[in-house]
């Protein structure tokens, strides 16, 4: 049940520079292009007891995401809805994905927050925070239209750095909790209503956890232009963390230049020849030497090019890690006060969430059992007189705020031996398993 969806954005043309936005617009991200997919008649979905259904935000392979308003509070949420009965064969896959998003989103401000799962007579729904600004596809598309004002860059390096830091913080949090996202891309990053906007990572349909190490099987999964060479080749397995590093590099490149560093020649996403064309480019030509990148490379600072060099290392063993990215000079470059102040405020708020969440101990077998029972019911037609059923996935941000003060929480962590980096204690190992195929348009 992917965490986000997007509606198709306007066609910006057929040039190489337009492919990144055009392809991204066809995949996932809830809350993009508000109003572009409004239906003439808004259905109820059996949600009427609790929520007012307002409008369609986007569609995906498994269902639709709708903007809804909670009647009691007036608060807006995004609800991903899938018609019941759902196939029994996918209940475990859906459960793993929901648990990953719930556990991670509850502990980090740069990850979409999942609140609950609801079951009505006609649908099962995942209730998430509503991210008002939509995904970054439209944002980058609009920026590309005025790139001449920034020396040919879609985003100048300061603004790009502001968003890239938040992406890496979110990915770092995932890895600390033993989860690889495996489908990082422009359309799986959302922008909220802050000024400047904060970035939110979404759609964990392809996410996978690990136990002792992050080595994963040879399944080709994701979006071709964001796949690392080891993922495309699928010969000897891959490191899930390093796959996320490569994809983060592609995302950084797209934010800066509005195009992919390695383009697929065949537009058929499920065509093996198209994947092979990207793989050949990756292993035979560096991103800087790729002919269609020549004009863009010269516009980047030496520090930025160095970081991209390290992220696009075709050898996953020597490819830069997320931890090393955070220490790289370009990552920590001085930024204008507008971005510095915004990041400082974000980190201050995140410190409170981290400390309180670390001692909240909300994840429980009871919640997982309730979720499993709800999904089992969703595989069956509704019983006579069946009403709406709700299962809370995680503490809401208001509930976290009511926990002990930050100083008290930090003292509790210290007395208990430390937070261990990730607030979830590496529990992502529970989430290993095949992800939802519909989370991305491209996979083999």
Summarize the structure.
The protein has about 450 residues and is of the alpha+beta class.
Structure notes:
The chain starts with 15 loop residues before the first helix and ends in a 29-residue tail after the last helix. The longest helix is centred in the last third of the chain and has 24 residues, at 337-360. The model is unreliable at 5-17, 21-39 and 400-444 (pLDDT under 50). It is an alpha+beta fold. It is 37% helix and 12% strand. The chain has 14 helices and twelve strands. The radius of gyration is 21 Å and the shape is globular. Helix 4 (157-176) packs antiparallel against helix 6 and helix 11 (337-360) crosses helix 14. It has a domain at 136-345: Transferase(Phosphotransferase) domain 1 (Transferase(Phosphotransferase), domain 1, Orthogonal Bundle). A six-stranded antiparallel β-sheet has the order 1-2-3-5-4-12, with helices on one face. Strands 6-9 form a two-stranded antiparallel sheet. Strands 7-8 form a two-stranded antiparallel sheet.
Task: Give the helices and strands, then pairings.
Layout: H1 16-24, E1 51-59, E2 64-70, E3 76-83, H2 91-105, E4 114-119, E5 123-129, H3 136-145, H4 157-176, E6 179-180, E7 189-191, E8 199-201, E9 208-209, E10 215-216, H5 229-233, E11 238-239, H6 240-257, H7 272-284, H8 294-297, H9 302-311, H10 322-327, H11 337-360, H12 365-378, E12 389-392, H13 397-401, H14 406-415
Antiparallel strand pairs: 1-2, 2-3, 3-5, 4-5, 4-12, 6-9, 7-8, 10-11
Helix pairs in contact: 1-3, 2-12, 4-6, 11-14
């Amino acid at each position: 049940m992917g965490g986000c969806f997007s509606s198709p954005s306007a066609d910006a043309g057929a040039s190489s520079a337009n492919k990144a936005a055009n392809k991204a617009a066809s995949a996932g991200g809830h809350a993009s292009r508000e109003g572009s997919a409004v239906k003439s008649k808004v259905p109820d979905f059996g949600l009427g007891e609790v929520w007012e259904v307002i409008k369609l935000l986007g569609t995906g392979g498994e269902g639709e995401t709708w903007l809804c308003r909670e009647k009691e509070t007036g608060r807006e949420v995004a609800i991903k809805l899938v018609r019941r009965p759902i196939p029994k064969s996918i209940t475990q896959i859906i459960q793993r994905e929901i648990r990953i998003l719930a556990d991670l989103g509850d502990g980090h401000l740069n990850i979409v927050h999942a609140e609950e799962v609801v079951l009505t007579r006609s649908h099962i729904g995942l209730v998430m925070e509503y991210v008002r600004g939509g995904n970054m596809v439209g944002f980058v598309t609009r920026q590309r239209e005025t790139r001449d004002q920034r020396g040919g860059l879609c985003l100048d390096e300061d603004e790009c750095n502001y968003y890239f830091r938040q992406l890496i913080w979110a990915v770092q949090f995932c890895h600390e909790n033993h989860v690889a996202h495996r489908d990082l891309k422009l359309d799986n990053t959302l922008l909220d209503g802050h000024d400047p906007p904060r970035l939110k990572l979404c759609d964990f349909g392809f996410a996978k956890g690990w136990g002792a190490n992050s080595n994963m099987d040879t399944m080709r999964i994701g979006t071709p232009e964001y796949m690392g060479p080891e993922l495309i080749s699928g010969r000897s397995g891959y490191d899930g963390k390093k796959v996320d590093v490569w994809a983060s590099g592609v995302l950084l490149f797209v934010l800066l230049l509005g195009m992919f560093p390695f383009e697929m020649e065949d537009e058929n996403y499920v065509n093996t020849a198209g994947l092979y064309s990207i793989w050949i480019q990756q292993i035979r030509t560096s991103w800087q030497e790729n002919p269609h990148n020549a004009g863009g490379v010269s516009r980047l600072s030496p520090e930025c090019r160095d970081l991209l060099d390290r992220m696009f290392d075709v050898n996953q063993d020597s490819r830069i890690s997320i931890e090393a990215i955070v220490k790289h000079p370009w990552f920590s470059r001085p930024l204008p006060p507008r971005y510095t102040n915004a990041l400082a405020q974000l980190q201050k708020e995140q410190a409170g969430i981290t400390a309180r969440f670390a001692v909240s101990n909300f994840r429980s077998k009871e919640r997982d059992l309730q979720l499993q029972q709800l999904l089992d019911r969703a595989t069956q037609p509704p019983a006579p007189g069946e009403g709406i059923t709700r299962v809370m996935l995680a503490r809401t941000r208001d509930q976290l705020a009511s926990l002990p003060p930050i100083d008290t929480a930090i003292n509790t962590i210290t007395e208990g031996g430390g937070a261990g980096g990730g607030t979830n204690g590496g529990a992502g190992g529970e989430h290993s398993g095949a992800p939802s195929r519909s989370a991305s348009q491209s996979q083999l």
